[in-house]
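Worked Example 4.2. Consider the chain below.
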Amino acid sequence: MKVEDIKKIAIVGAGDMGHGIAEVAAMAGYKINLYDIKQEFVDKGMTKIKESLTKQVSKQKLTQEAMDKVVGNFTCFTVIKDAVKDVDFMVEAAPEILDLKQKIFKEIDQYAPKHAILASNTSNMSITKIGGATGRPDKVVGLHFFNPVAMMLLVEVIRGEKTSDETMNVTYDLMMKWKNFRGNMVPVRVEKDTAGFIYNRIGSPAGIYLMEVLQRKLVTPEVVDAKVRSIGAPMGPYETMDYTGLDINYHGMLYFAEVMSPDYKPRKWLEDMVKAGTLGKKTGKGLFEWPGGARPTIDPAKADPKFDPMDLICLQVNEGTKLLEGGVARSAAEIDLAMVNGGGGVFGPFALAKGMGWDKVAERCEKISKELGVKWFMPTETLKKGNIKI
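Applying the procedure from the previous section yields the following structure tokens:
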């Protein structure tokens, strides 16, 4: 199968991620079968798509004729058998529940054409386990889009243990076609199935660090975020946790603790806030106040001069070397590419830390590890030897 053979795509799930993926695919010229379990969910997804397209028309980024053509690419379904029976490619965008995804893939495997590639949009779930629910694990692949799909640049293309080279290459080529249409999409290959893939995995040690220093009352959220924003970041790390939802961070850490290391276990303050329903922006209060959903006011004068954001960068570099050692990522440059385009920064962690010298980065990771009692922060052999090319 070649990317040119893909003509029709099923999007299973019309929620925030699903309708965003569907919009991008339809704008690239593909016929889309949009499915959800209820007509009201499908209708809501189509309404969101039309609203997005209408905004582009109002900004003269799209003509009305072009919008009508994109909308005409859609056929809507509430019966999954009908939605996938004649497609060449499928993207599932259901909630991040492994059992649910496995159930969906098992059902789709029965009805989709044998040549069809089945992709799961997920930020953490095992592609290998999802593919294991089908009789075609070689044709199962992961896609990690970022929300909102139509605006965010990065998409990770993830290989499961049994994903074939053909499936991986065709899926990557499909994302490149979407990139060529949008002009601002960046596909990155994840060559081994691992928790968090590249972007979320690289950022995960910062989660441990931020939990631990707050648990020990070494910092307050405001002094850290004020310092990070003072060096040009659009949002500090604690505000980001509030923005995404403390419950999301909590469950993500639980998953990492299960599959990676006990060091990821959520600290008591985070567990207490989740149990109390104080979840961040979605509830109006978390680590900060979110009046009416507006961003919290952070006083730049409160920036803590003792807090050094390079601690987080060094931990990210160390995590990146684990991905290189494990064959998850092909190069440090590709990891930086993912981090820049997934987070909106100017430079990735390797580029930022290179000037320190890899030996100094390793020493810093070891120092942080011993000070906080977190074994996961200990430097890798790759980092200690400085065997990194960028």
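The mean pLDDT is 95. DSSP finds 17 helices and eight strands in the chain. Compare this with Example 4.1 before moving on.
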